[in-house]
């Protein structure tokens, strides 16, 4: 795949904001569920930065543009849309009107493609209520361009407003504040404003038969009515998490913090869309045990949404910081030991990913080179866990939380509303701690630009892990001809986090005998557990151990949920075992039409169907 025309400043975008930059976006779109398209126009306010610039360059992917109008002269402007580079889409060049002034406003009239990679359209039968269709978006990293012609680079942040017209039976939600609705006949117009500048990947929309319940002074949870009660229960701690995040990071600037619980095909645990976090229903464990994902999305209100990576090569600045803050929130709400327990628990997954990608794979660096690489292909747990490990290491180097947390506050305050890169962070850190000689020992080059596992694993406190380590040893040492050495009460008394930790350790060990798995399941009933993180690990242990009883439940589950964190490893495990390989491929071929674009795109690679 060539990278012709893509920007040297952001290898994932054609745009050249250093020449002409979009300063405001006005979205006016109609939702057509029959054609599976959005059609209408966007109004772009534009500022010329480079006096010699004569064109505005946007990203566009499979958009059918009918005209571009200059607001002042009302005349049509010339534009050219280049041939597409596969998943990157096309370069759209618009000739600027000949005028002295550097500010322009133009409207682009267009419609998108029914297969827009940033949208998922669900038929009524694919929803919980079965009566109404459903639409939702996922624009990170570079799918906004499949819905809106825009400068699809996180280096550009704009305010946006939107008028969305849809059937009056449905509710429209966006990553913005709803200002008004007007119903005319069977159509309803919803008007939104996002007054804090955001990058294009944070524009989001959902349309469906949605209801809400208040879960805090600034929060509602939204979902189909069939699950709204369960959602309100699961996320009742949201305000506590928000307040704790504010103690760590500073004031919350986005006004409201709502949650939207999407249908199960949503590809991610959560997406930090401002004012309206999108989450997967796989968080509905029934006991609030997976609400740390909400803490993660709340943390993004600062790390990612206020301070944004300049391009996706610096994605670790978004995600490493967010995991680090998420664990601080959780630690402050439970026990300070929890932060290290969670970090320890995720280390095996980081090791597995580094092994899978290869220890010398450049995509295991903290700062990656995305020239010619689509961000969806670069996505992994590495920026999350290697990133948080680096920050936890730096915290220890400078003397602990008492030194590091005030630095974090200053970092958020200094860079809020900006897009930055790793060098900005490094300089700020070195400047802030210039009197602390311990920072001389930090090998920035190795941490940032060497592939593989982190060069140093911090001295994590292992207190909370000890009980799990003991149980793990008992289970692994057990000769399965004898009775199970662990009583069911010993596991019943564990928290969900502890069971997840324990199962992760068993998964990392050698394959287990089928007899041992049968006996373990009789005592602990892991196969019946609702918690998705437990279910996921138990299914993987079964597949790795070639336990025939895991195959059908794994296939059923990957058909039911789209969360890539679960679906991709399960498909890879099914593929790795010869007995289940053909079934996995056949199952994928039959069901890929129901998957989100990014899920079908990546799983098809995992199953070696595409390269
Ligand atoms: C080094 C990586 C470089 C670029 C990747 C950038 C973006 C990746 C793109 O595919 C979008 C990612 C969206 C992520 C959204 C939410 C995640 O935080 C969820 C994490 C996994 C889960 O819990 O399901
Ligand atoms: Zn995140």
UniProtKB/TrEMBL annotation:
Cofactor: how and how many bound: Binds 1 zinc ion per subunit.
Known cofactor(s): Zn(2+)
Domain Peptidase M1 leukotriene A4 hydrolase/aminopeptidase C-terminal: start-end pairs: 463-607
Any one GO molecular-function label of the UniProt entry: epoxide hydrolase activity
Localization: Cell membrane; Cytoplasm
UniProt key word Cytoplasm: yes
UniProt KW Signal keyword: no
Superkingdom of the organism of origin: Eukaryota
GO CC term (a single one): cytosol
Keyword tags: Cytoplasm, Glycoprotein, GPI-anchor, Hydrolase, Lipoprotein, Membrane, Metal-binding, Metalloprotease, Protease, Zinc
Active site: 297 (proton acceptor), 384 (proton donor)
Membrane-related topology note: Lipid-anchor; GPI-anchor
An annotated GO BP: proteolysis
CDD domains: M1_LTA4H (cd09599)
Major localization listed first in the record, in broad terms: membrane
UniProt-recorded name of the protein: Peptidase M1 leukotriene A4 hydrolase/aminopeptidase C-terminal domain-containing protein
Species annotation: Zophobas morio
Lineage: Eukaryota, Metazoa, Ecdysozoa, Arthropoda, Hexapoda
């Amino acid at each position: 795949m060539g990278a012709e025309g893509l920007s040297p400043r952001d290898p994932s975008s054609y745009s050249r904001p250093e020449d002409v930059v979009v300063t405001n976006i006005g979205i006016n779109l109609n939702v057509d569920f029959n054609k599976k398209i959005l059609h209408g126009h966007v109004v772009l306010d534009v500022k010329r930065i480079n006096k010699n610039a004569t064109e505005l360059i946007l990203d566009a992917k499979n958009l059918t543009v009918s005209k571009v109008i200059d607001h002042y002269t009302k005349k049509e402007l010339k534009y050219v849309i280049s041939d597409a580079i596969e998943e990157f889409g096309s370069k759209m060049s618009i000739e600027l009107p000949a005028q002295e002034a550097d500010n322009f406003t133009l409207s682009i009239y267009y419609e998108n493609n029914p297969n827009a990679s940033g949208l998922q359209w669900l038929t009524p039968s694919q929803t919980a209520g079965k009566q109404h269709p459903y639409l939702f978006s996922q624009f990170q990293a570079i799918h906004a361009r499949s819905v809106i012609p825009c400068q699809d680079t996180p280096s550009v942040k704009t305010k946006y407003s939107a008028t969305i017209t849809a059937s009056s039976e449905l509710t429209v939600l966006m990553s913005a504040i709803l200002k008004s609705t007007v119903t005319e006949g069977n159509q309803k117009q919803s008007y939104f404003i996002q007054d804090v500048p955001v990058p294009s990947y944070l524009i989001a929309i959902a349309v469906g038969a949605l209801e809400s319940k208040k879960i805090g002074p600034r929060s509602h949870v939204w979902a189909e009515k069939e699950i709204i009660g369960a959602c309100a229960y699961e996320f009742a701690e949201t305000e506590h998490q928000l307040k704790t995040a504010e103690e760590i990071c500073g004031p919350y600037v986005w006004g409201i913090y709502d949650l939207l619980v999407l249908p199960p095909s949503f590809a991610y645990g959560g997406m930090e869309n401002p004012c309206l976090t999108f989450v997967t229903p796989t968080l509905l464990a029934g006991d609030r045990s997976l609400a740390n994902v909400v803490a993660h999305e709340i943390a993004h209100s600062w790390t990612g949404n206020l301070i944004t990576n300049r391009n996706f090569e610096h994605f670790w600045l978004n995600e490493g910081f967010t995991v680090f803050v998420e664990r601080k929130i959780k630690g402050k709400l439970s026990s300070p030991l929890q932060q290290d327990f969670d970090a320890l628990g995720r280390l095996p997954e980081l090791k597995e990913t580094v092994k899978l990608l290869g220890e010398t794979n450049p995509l295991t660096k903290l700062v990656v080179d995305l020239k010619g690489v689509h961000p969806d292909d670069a996505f992994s747990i590495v920026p999350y866990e290697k990133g948080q490990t680096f920050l936890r290491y730096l915290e220890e180097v400078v003397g602990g939380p008492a030194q590091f947390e005030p630095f974090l506050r200053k970092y958020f305050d200094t860079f809020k509303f900006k897009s930055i890169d790793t060098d900005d962070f490094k300089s700020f850190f070195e400047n802030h701690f210039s009197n602390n000689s311990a920072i001389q020992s930090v090998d920035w080059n190795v941490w940032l630009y060497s592939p593989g596992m982190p060069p140093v694993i911090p001295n994590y406190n292992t207190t909370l892990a000890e009980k799990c380590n003991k149980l793990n040893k008992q289970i692994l040492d057990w000769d399965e001809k004898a009775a199970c050495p662990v009583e069911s009460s010993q596991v019943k008394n564990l928290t969900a986090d502890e069971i997840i930790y324990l199962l992760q350790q068993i998964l990392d060990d050698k394959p287990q005998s089928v007899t041992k798995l049968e006996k373990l399941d009789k005592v602990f009933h892991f196969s019946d557990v609702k918690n998705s993180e437990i279910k996921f690990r138990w299914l993987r242990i079964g597949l790795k151990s070639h336990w025939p009883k895991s195959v059908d439940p794994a296939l059923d589950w990957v058909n039911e949920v789209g969360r890539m964190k679960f679906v991709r490893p399960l498909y890879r495990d099914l593929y790795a075992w010869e007995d289940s390989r053909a079934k996995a491929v056949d199952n994928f071929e039959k069901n890929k039409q129901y998957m989100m674009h990014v899920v079908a795109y990546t799983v098809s690679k995992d199953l070696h169907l595409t390269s």
